[in-house]
Design brief:
Elements (H helix, E strand, L loop, with lengths): L10 H42 L6 H14 L10 E5 L2 E5 L2 E7 L3 E7 L2 E5 L1
Antiparallel strand pairs: 1-2, 2-5, 3-4
Helix pairs in contact: 1-2
Length: 121
Amino acid sequence: MLHRERPRRGASRVGCLLQLIVLVALVYGGVLVGEDALAYYRFRDAMKMEARFATVRTDEQIRTRLRAFTDSVKLPPEAKEINVVRDGNRIRIWSSYDRELRLPLDYSRTFHLRPFVERTF
């Protein structure tokens, strides 16, 4: 008995190429969004750290340290408008800024981010 090999169809190669293009697009978009998300969470973590040490730092010291942090993670200038409010034994720290996500094909969307921390001491 002789076995004849069937010629390969080209559909699987096109399907593989399409999957590869989709994967590359998802990774590209994920990197763009991921960098902004990471900067947001790092900024919020810095706010948490400052709230922990609120008993030994003044409001202006907290603002100065957080403003320096915004430069290190490359946040927009409006993120430097940091609010610090103390009520008795509670401290609230927040800021707000906009980030624009730009993707190929002229797609862009602006996200309004507002990191906020509240802590009692």
